[in-house]
Amino acid sequence: MAPTSRAALHPCVAHRGWSGGAPENTLAAFRLALSEPSVYWIELDVHLSKDEVPVVIHDGTLNRTTNGKGKVSERTALQLSQLDAGSWFHPIYAGEPIPTLAQVMSLVYGRACLNIELKEDAQEGGLLVRRVVELVRAYRMESAVVITSFDRRLIEQAKKQAPEFRTGLITDKKPKDLIPQLQSLGASVLSIDYRLVTPKLLAETATASIGVMAWTVNQPGDLARLASMPEPFQICTNYPDRWLAAVAKG
């Protein structure tokens, strides 16, 4: 199989941007991902700030990836933007801010698709979902976005508020009724721990017209094994360069 066809068969999703080369979920990581022409998808995580602005950060707290402390939801978007989200990764990224989802959309519009993972919703009534849906529509990126979450309630809210959006369930388990669960949610994507990806699962999802994204695959051996599978599915990785090497070996 030619490298180009293997890359098309197993598209790369840059996990939190090119997070192996730049601080995760920052504009630096997204720019790095966009610098590789073969990367068409970027995965990111979204929380809601105190003033109801979707911001891009994985944890619900600031401690791990910024110089701040406490909950993301307790600060405004402006306050969050003034934190340093890059120094923990490397001094050259000192001062890299927490971006808003709008900033990321402005950066990637027309250049890549987004897998937007909704984290826990601190507010009642699906406010996080509503604000994300509003932004996707404002940027006219409905066809370039899939909304995913571990939380089934958020997927249900997304389908209720925006039935036309693609949605996906994230899971690290493979129960026998996984396909019926996805169908009941109206989810068209399964985002699953790469260790659970098998030919049988891929056959079942293909029959149900459900796409698959395997996460998070970083070791060259694992990337090579998955890239050798003949069934189509996305590979989510912190290292798009390692993915390129794996698909080129075909």
UniProtKB/TrEMBL annotation:
SUPFAM superfamilies: PLC-like phosphodiesterases (SSF51695). One of its GO terms (molecular function) is phosphoric diester hydrolase activity. Transmembrane segments: none annotated. Residues 10-247 form the GP-PDE domain. InterPro entries: GP_PDE_dom (IPR030395), PLC-like_Pdiesterase_TIM-brl (IPR017946). One of its GO terms (biological process) is lipid metabolic process. Pfam families: GDPD. This is Glycerophosphodiester phosphodiesterase. It comes from Cohnella lubricantis. The lineage of its organism: Bacteria, Bacillati, Bacillota, Bacilli, Bacillales.
